[in-house]
Amino acid sequence: MPRIAFYAPMKSPNSPVPSGDREMARNLLLAIQARGDAVDLASDLRVFDKHGDKEVQAKLRHEADAEVLRLTCDLPADTALWVTYHNYYKAPDLIGPRVSTARNIPYVQLESTRAYSRLQGPWLGFAQAAHQACDAARVIFYHTANDLITLEREQFGNQALVELPPFLPASSLPQASSCDGPMLAVGMMRHGDKLASYRVLEQALRHLQGDWSLSIAGDGPARAEIEALMAKFGTKVRFLGQLDRDALRKAYATASLMVWPGVNEAYGMIYLEAQAHGIPVVAQDRPGVRDVLMPSDYPSVAEGAKGLAARLRTLLDNPALRSSQGSQSAAYIAARHLMPDATDRFWTAVDPLLEAST
Prior knowledge:
13% strand; Glycosyltransferase involved in cell wall bisynthesis; 11 strands; Glycosyltransferase_grp1; 2 domains; transferase; three-stranded parallel beta sheet; Rossmann fold; 358 residues; six-stranded parallel beta sheet; alpha/beta; 12 helices
């Protein structure tokens, strides 16, 4: 069995800070090693510049240079492949291509993006590095149709672009929800896009007539603002705080539906989790989000909060429809978004590289 070096420049899978990015990195590690191959986390170095700061970028390049020197010497002798997860203009892979070249092993990427609009301005150097890393990859696995657009347009040489849908780290579905409890929203309480989703959710709730209740799972620096935003609804909205895996499973076990607008979500692991539990999802039809949702007529962004509220009311008023859509959603996840499928897709594309390099 080959030994694989794995690296996530934006956030190590060992990071103590929960996020969808960390969750997906951990899932990918599990999927890659599912057939028994050894996978080593090559480095915990976080190469991430949030604000476009040249001094930060210079410091990170210096740290990356040191890691390249270390890994060129210290990477186990039987390492046969380097895999990098989430290379993009704020978090370019400054390590993997150089170590792979020095050690003469294939280099592949998972969930990489090309952003030519960033080849000017404060992220110029990092954007160039991200593009160069993309060019070095023999295979790039993409998670969404939106990512494929630029990857395909700028495909380098005979580089392979392979779909690997986001997935859950399981081989079977959990027990289906009873779908008779409150609505559920799950989202980190951060400023920016997460807060924007909470604002759209609050606007939808204002348009929601009749009886309803909502539980919100999540925590973070914007919690006080979100609690103030929802205060007008009184006891109809309940804050659960940040839940561990077991507690979140209990919340899914009775949720009548999952609601999350999905503002600028890359795709959203919560949508996969909810659907796997047989819970119908109410979200806006957005790039990335639509790649992980059972195909349906989700409200458009242009329909705004009223569109979300109308979909919520339809499902709340019709238990049979909730059950039917929940069952269809679970079947969709089972067919496309569980770990065995991800493992098969990964190794089908990678095994030929390893055979050619031996």
